[in-house]
Amino acid sequence: MSARTEGPLSFAPFRWLLAARTVAIVGNAVAPIALAFAVLDLTGSAADLGLVVAARSLANVAMLLFGGVIADRLPRNVVLVGTSIAAAATQGTIAALVLTGTAGIPALVALGVLNGAVAAVSLPAAAALVPDTVPDDLLRPANAWLRLGLNAGSIVGASAGAGLIAVVGPGWGLAVDAATFAVAAVLFSRLRLPDAAGAGEGAATGTATGTAGAAAGTAAGPRAADGDPAGTDPAESGPTTPTSVLTDLREGWREFSGRRWIWIVVLQFAVLNAAFTGAVTVLGPLVADESFGRAGWGLVVAAQTVGFGAGALLALRWRPRRALGIGVAAMAAAAIPVVALALTPTLPALVAAFALGGLAIELFAIAWDQSLQAHVPRAALSRVYSYDMVGSFVAVPLGEILVGPLAHGLGTVPVLLGCAAVIVIATAAASSSRSVWRIRATA
Fold first, then answer.
1. Which residues of the chain have pLDDT under 50?
2. Phi and psi for 223 in degrees, rounded to 5?
3. Residue 210: CB partners within 8 Å, gap ≥ 6?
4. Residue 224: its pLDDT value, please?
């Protein structure tokens, strides 16, 4: 058999997906910076900032499971058009309130809840759509290309957006985010998929017979050593009998919980994300305001994205068989930027630290997406992604809420160092699991 000569960009559906997600991330890179400084301009309180960002995170976690069901039942490209339009509306409203000087913490919390719910539907749909746009043997380069696009958009958004915010204020940064979602909706509308793929290959039923039973340990057949059901075909789909939402959720849970390596990594990120997001999202802007300035914080965020890009480029060339284990262990490097915020809050040190942390995060992210897409049945992939996201994000609001008051009471430096220690401990625990290291890059 001759080797495949074309790459992911040879497939039109993938090109539209890449374009839409890249455009959306340009605005999304601006939005957290703009929102953080909008809240600090209103009250100057890290606790208030934590409350606003936590409200969005809570709504996101609360709706993710239903978002996964929706993405497995309906054509995923259509879901992404609708969620992009809704995100444009919510972000546009926040921008209008900030620009007119009528924004208040209650209004920002309420709109954050709506925006988090919208994201809960779009995230599983976008992640699970990748295998429907390229052949299975191109999943790793496809994910790398997507990450490169996301990283390039983040660099442009964070650096240019920070400059825009410093000059004309955070309201215009939020307006840019709303506009990019509107453009993304147009691009998603051009994405055409085969009928089965667009609906998650039988996902309108939400079933994957045999596979779900084996993942729950109820099948008579043997189980593979890595925790996956032996003989599972990731593209396998079940019958077309309509099922309830609860049935869909139960079957998605079987696929998720029946793979030890998945839930171990998700537990790692439940702890790691709470510590990292609280430190960087809430305390980072506070440190910036007290030292090197808001425009400098945009450069720091952009440096992390440069690290993401370097990781994606490395992933295009380096394809280790145990990519997931390597990526999980590499997440210890996420503690480096948090330590730098605590001990060396200077622009050169933070740029280097965030770039290094970004490279490690990206190596993990690409390995994780490839592992899920290769080892989880296609018909249940959005639901497994939604359980992954719920578990990974569930403690984020707690981290966002706690770090502000803790920093006021104990000081910013001790809280940042505590967050770094939590990241390292969680990573050491996950990377010691044999099930994580047994997962290979392909099914």
1. 1-3, 196-240
2. -110, 145
3. 219, 236, 238
4. 32
